[in-house]
Structures are given as structure tokens and as C-alpha cells.
Amino acid sequence: MTTDLESRIRRLEDSVLIGERVIKYAMGVDRRDWEMFADCFTDPVHVDFSASGVPAAEFARDDLVTLVRVPLSGFTATQHLSPNHVIEFDEHDPDRAVCYSYIYAQH
């Protein structure tokens, strides 16, 4: 665990930014703001929707947007909530972290 003040502040800032990115994922979908949604990802992006029948694979960011946009276009409204963010940082690589979060989706 980092102990110097500068590293601790950076970790706090990074945690906030990561949590905001997860929230923007949900907001982008619900607002149908596909640019906001796309900005949540690198290009390419590794996606694992295997529980929904889409095998885990690398996708171009625009293809991921289409993969999400098309099925949701049939709904008049959606609500995605993403609480309980737990962000774990890689102790060996300060530029790497994993965010765990629940998602509650109403369609």
C-alpha cells in the first residue's frame, strides 16, 4: 500500500475518476448519449457479455456502441444504476486498477 501523501492523493483522484467513468456508462446508455458511452472505453475494448450470449472478445469501440445501442433502441426508457464501486489498484503497476460494481438495469 502506498504511504506517501502524493501517491495517496493520486489514488484518491484516480478512484473518483474511475467511479465517474462507471457512472457515465450508465448515464450514456440511459440518455442515449452514445458519445458519452463510447468515451468510457479504450479502442479496442475487451467485452465479456457471455452471460447474455455474446462471447468475450475484443471489439472496436464503435462496434460495442452498436452492440448496446441496437437492442436498447426498442425501449422508450431505461434506468441503469451502478452503486457500490470497489476499486482495487495493482500494487505493481500504479496505472492499472479494476473496478467492481453492481448494476441494476430496468428496461
List the helices and strands and how they pair.
Elements: H1 5-31, H2 34-38, E1 45-49, E2 54-59, H3 61-72, E3 79-81, E4 86-90, E5 93-100, E6 104-106
Antiparallel strand pairs: 1-2, 3-6, 4-5
How many helices? The count is 3
Number of domains: 1
Percent of residues in helices comes to 40-55%
CATH architecture descriptor name = Roll
Q: What is the name of the CATH class?
A: Alpha Beta
Main beta-sheet annotation: 2 strands, antiparallel
CATH topology: Nuclear Transport Factor 2, Chain: A
Poorly predicted runs are none
Which structural class do you get from the secondary structure elements? alpha+beta
Count of beta strands: 6
Tell me the radius of gyration. Answer: 16 Å
SSE topology string: HHEEHEEEE
Amino- and carboxy-terminal Cα gap: 41 Å
* Average pLDDT for all residues: 92
Strand order of the largest sheet: 1-2
Question: Roughly what fraction of the amino acids lie in strands?
Answer: 25-35%
- Could you say which overall geometry the principal axes of the C-alpha atoms support? globular
Verbal overview:
By secondary structure, this protein is of the alpha+beta class. It has a single domain (5-106), classed as Nuclear Transport Factor 2, Chain: A. Helix content is 41%, strand content 28%. The strands form three sheets. A two-stranded antiparallel ribbon has the order 1-2. Strands 3-6 form a two-stranded antiparallel ribbon. Strands 4-5 form a two-stranded antiparallel sheet. β1 and β2 (54-59) form a beta hairpin.
